Fold these 2 entries.
Entry 1:
Amino acid sequence: MKVCRTVAEIRAASTSHSRGSVGLVPTMGSLHEGHLSLLRAAREECDTVVMSLFVNPAQFAEDGDLERYPRDEARDLELARATGVDLVFAPSADEMYPPGFQTWVEVAELGSILEGEHRPGHFRGVATVVLKLFTIVRPDRAYFGQKDAQQVEVLRRMIRDLALEVELRVLPTVRDADGLALSSRNAFLTPEERERALALPRALSTRDPVAARAALAESNGLVVDYVEVADFDPPVLAGAVRVGSTRLVDNVPLEGDDE
Ligand code: AMP
């Protein structure tokens, strides 16, 4: 497994690996089983697997969330190696956003509802970095988690709108045995907060927004940002809550047998 820090390096490495299909798995690191499920799918379906490891400053608000985001590169690289990743692209922020950077991708409507309403600019940061990763790595397939259903919807729209030649592959949400969706941010939860956080997957599992809101209103110490049915593909019941200083998002598909 080769670790590349610059655009030039990953381009050169991708060219020398350019036999067959290329799968890209974008991550912000702190890998867990959710990420690993994407890497394993890419490993099965593609000749070359590229994982990006980049905590993208452009998708964080300026409130300390970026600085606080968990990072453990040595562990991530070990897990990537063990999962059969060929190339890791782990650039610095300056490499992705060189001085003077001013070109942004805005998925106007989808990027401004739900998560976009509570995190202004978030999806602009996501769409921009993912388009840039696509142009650098030029994958045939890119792998994302249904856990971030709105992110998938935003990226699907961007791919259509800009006629990008990449196949979007979406894998089901991986959960802990108690139902909590795996997330790098779960590491912030105290045992007591984690117990309270379980109210979110329990509420969403009703698959009914009114029942879910009522269930969350009764659970102590959760601040509900939203619980809404979103007309995505597939439609989902999506929710976001704050438990202490940790913000959690989750969703349950309302059609199909996807989890
Ligand atoms: P992140 O590192 O949080 O940006 O996530 C990288 C990718 O992993 C995104 O496509 C996420 O949707 C996906 N992902 C995160 N958590 C999960 C999960 N619990 N199950 C499946 N995919 C996930």
Entry 2:
Amino acid sequence: MSGKILSIRALEVLDSRGNPTVKCVLKTPKCTVSAIVPSGASTGKHEALELRDGGRRYGGKGVRKAVANANTALSKAITGMDCTDQEAIDLVMLELDGTTHKSKLGANAMLAVSLAACRAGAVHKGVPLYEYIRSISESETIRLPIPQLNIINSGKHAGLENDIQEHMIFPMGFKSFSEAMRAGVETYHQLKAILRKKYGAQATLLGDEGGFAPPIADVNERLTLIMDAISQAGYGKKIKLGLDCASSEFFKNGTYTLGKKSYASAELIDVYRQLSKAYPLVSIEDGMAEDDWEGWAFLTKQLGNRLQLVGDDLLVTNEARIKRAIQEKSCNALLLKVNQIGTVTESIEAANLCVAEKWNVVVSHRSGETEDDFIADLVAGLGASQSKFGAPARSDRVAKYNRLLEIEQELGRKAKFGN
Ligand code: PGA
Ligand code: ZN
């Protein structure tokens, strides 16, 4: 049956923080599929534009303009195209928008269409979405990722300032995704019990990504509690630690401010070095701010041989910024967020650029998520070694983990896992 796109219809729905976002429903003669776009809070300033309405409605966060763009200009251009030609669909949208940051039509409008088209493409090829993504990305293999689980939330995701944003566990010493998940989940529950006992039930309230948001100011104390949880859950050396500092949020006029202390780039790198000596830290994301290229190069020179240094706000899944980072040896891993760039094709290109450089690729959610589990198929289809989908709590996060568990089961003995 022909893969001709019969119609696309966009509408305004809500994300996990109760903010409006764009959903696209796409029809072909064979299927009706849909996709919903996520949204960040600690967004990088070089990300593609998330078009919001402004004004009073939803505090300015309405997406009626983006929805209208999808229902008019994008619909007109895409209807009649073949849903199995992802590159052509994305290219038509890019040309129609014609701006560097998708500021005319909105990356949220374009991404909703791009994701939905990808889903329809898989249906028409008669393969699971992860296999379809493997084929269009020409990735070597399908792989289940090591899940980075963000179990203590702070910074913007917990309504705080001048703080490290995410404290993650990396269940690395396991043979399969489901075993790694189980260990991560048991550690999460153990941490909850520890927090409740030590600080009371208030300390187990959750932040935006499903991790606990306890009133503990000191990063060392947080990591010590996580280490206690790992050991009480019985996983000793099998679970490592990672941080997403989201440092652009606490960088101003050349200075980083954590709590009440201020640091120059080199001083902050010393803080990271100390932490990596005191704890089994394997990864630091956004250790330096989005435009502190000098700081990033120094960080990688100092710690790049022993730590994974992940560029999120630095790279914004953007080819030009990734190329600069490769050239300047700014980091050694990519955080891939589809809505930072706005199309499936460009997301795949960003991943492939990094794979060629032997960088690790971490496929990531946003702090504002939905029930859409597209990124689970994306990480598996790209064969990327890590996922970052938050804590194992709240359906906006758990939907992705459940989809990965399903993929693992579907693949059976063929399922590859981790590095
Ligand atoms: P965001 O946070 O989705 O709020 O940008 C996630 C991250 O910084 O990795
Ligand atoms: Zn980040």
